[in-house]
Write a structure and sequence with these properties.
109 residues, alpha/beta, binds iron/sulfur cluster
Protein backbone atom coordinates (compact mmCIF):
# COMPACT_ATOMS: atom_id res chain seq x y z
CA UNK A 1 0.00 0.00 0.00
CA UNK A 2 1.29 3.43 -0.98
CA UNK A 3 1.49 6.03 1.76
CA UNK A 4 1.62 9.74 0.92
CA UNK A 5 3.12 12.01 3.56
CA UNK A 6 3.17 15.79 3.08
CA UNK A 7 6.50 17.17 4.25
CA UNK A 8 8.38 20.47 4.42
CA UNK A 9 11.57 20.70 2.38
CA UNK A 10 14.09 23.52 2.42
CA UNK A 11 14.49 23.83 -1.32
CA UNK A 12 12.66 22.93 -4.50
CA UNK A 13 15.24 23.98 -7.10
CA UNK A 14 18.53 22.09 -6.99
CA UNK A 15 21.56 23.62 -8.62
CA UNK A 16 24.29 21.22 -9.73
CA UNK A 17 27.96 22.01 -9.31
CA UNK A 18 28.49 20.96 -12.91
CA UNK A 19 26.15 20.56 -15.84
CA UNK A 20 24.85 17.00 -15.88
CA UNK A 21 26.78 15.15 -18.59
CA UNK A 22 23.88 12.80 -19.34
CA UNK A 23 20.87 15.15 -19.42
CA UNK A 24 22.73 18.42 -20.02
CA UNK A 25 20.84 20.21 -17.27
CA UNK A 26 22.15 22.58 -14.61
CA UNK A 27 19.09 22.45 -12.35
CA UNK A 28 16.57 19.90 -11.20
CA UNK A 29 13.20 19.91 -9.51
CA UNK A 30 11.80 16.85 -7.77
CA UNK A 31 8.18 17.58 -6.88
CA UNK A 32 8.02 14.33 -4.86
CA UNK A 33 10.45 12.34 -2.82
CA UNK A 34 9.94 8.71 -3.79
CA UNK A 35 8.31 7.07 -6.77
CA UNK A 36 5.54 4.55 -6.71
CA UNK A 37 6.26 3.19 -10.19
CA UNK A 38 8.97 1.13 -8.49
CA UNK A 39 10.96 0.25 -11.60
CA UNK A 40 13.47 -2.47 -10.81
CA UNK A 41 16.25 -0.65 -12.67
CA UNK A 42 15.68 2.70 -10.92
CA UNK A 43 18.94 4.30 -9.79
CA UNK A 44 17.13 6.73 -7.47
CA UNK A 45 17.51 4.09 -4.78
CA UNK A 46 21.24 4.63 -4.90
CA UNK A 47 22.68 5.75 -1.56
CA UNK A 48 24.07 8.87 -3.19
CA UNK A 49 20.58 10.40 -3.38
CA UNK A 50 19.87 9.83 0.34
CA UNK A 51 16.24 8.91 -0.24
CA UNK A 52 14.13 6.85 2.14
CA UNK A 53 14.55 3.05 1.97
CA UNK A 54 10.79 2.73 1.41
CA UNK A 55 11.30 4.74 -1.78
CA UNK A 56 8.49 3.10 -3.77
CA UNK A 57 5.71 2.93 -1.17
CA UNK A 58 6.36 5.93 1.08
CA UNK A 59 6.04 9.06 -1.04
CA UNK A 60 6.87 12.39 0.54
CA UNK A 61 4.77 15.10 -1.04
CA UNK A 62 6.72 18.33 -0.90
CA UNK A 63 4.64 21.13 0.61
CA UNK A 64 4.10 24.49 -1.10
CA UNK A 65 6.32 23.74 -4.09
CA UNK A 66 4.77 26.44 -6.28
CA UNK A 67 5.32 29.17 -3.68
CA UNK A 68 8.84 27.90 -2.90
CA UNK A 69 9.79 27.97 -6.59
CA UNK A 70 8.31 31.40 -7.10
CA UNK A 71 10.21 32.76 -4.10
CA UNK A 72 13.43 31.16 -5.30
CA UNK A 73 13.03 32.63 -8.78
CA UNK A 74 12.49 36.08 -7.26
CA UNK A 75 15.98 35.73 -5.77
CA UNK A 76 17.37 34.52 -9.08
CA UNK A 77 20.39 36.81 -9.34
CA UNK A 78 22.76 33.85 -9.04
CA UNK A 79 20.82 31.60 -11.39
CA UNK A 80 21.77 31.24 -15.03
CA UNK A 81 19.27 30.60 -17.83
CA UNK A 82 19.62 26.87 -18.38
CA UNK A 83 17.87 23.52 -18.56
CA UNK A 84 15.83 22.36 -15.56
CA UNK A 85 15.26 18.61 -15.31
CA UNK A 86 11.90 17.85 -13.76
CA UNK A 87 11.83 14.63 -11.79
CA UNK A 88 15.45 13.49 -11.67
CA UNK A 89 14.88 11.09 -8.77
CA UNK A 90 11.14 10.59 -9.10
CA UNK A 91 8.61 10.46 -11.87
CA UNK A 92 7.01 13.89 -11.99
CA UNK A 93 3.72 12.43 -13.23
CA UNK A 94 3.38 9.47 -10.92
CA UNK A 95 -0.15 8.82 -9.59
CA UNK A 96 0.33 11.22 -6.65
CA UNK A 97 0.23 14.07 -9.15
CA UNK A 98 -3.46 13.44 -9.73
CA UNK A 99 -4.24 14.48 -6.14
CA UNK A 100 -1.43 16.87 -5.25
CA UNK A 101 -0.59 18.73 -8.52
CA UNK A 102 2.98 19.39 -7.38
CA UNK A 103 4.49 19.09 -10.84
CA UNK A 104 1.86 21.33 -12.34
CA UNK A 105 2.55 23.90 -9.62
CA UNK A 106 6.14 24.04 -10.89
CA UNK A 107 5.17 24.55 -14.52
CA UNK A 108 4.98 27.96 -16.17
CA UNK A 109 1.46 29.11 -16.92
S1 LIG B 1 12.00 7.50 -10.80
FE1 LIG B 1 11.74 6.73 -12.87
S2 LIG B 1 12.97 4.87 -12.99
FE2 LIG B 1 12.67 5.37 -10.80
S3 LIG B 1 10.89 4.19 -10.18
FE3 LIG B 1 10.18 6.21 -10.81
S4 LIG B 1 9.62 6.00 -12.99
FE4 LIG B 1 10.90 4.25 -12.40
Amino acid sequence: MIKYVPKEFKTILNKYKFIDSWFWCRYSINPYNGCEFACTYCDSRSHKYHLQPEFDHLIYVKNNVGVMLENRLRRARTLLPDVVAIGGTCDAYQPAEKSYNNTRQCSPE
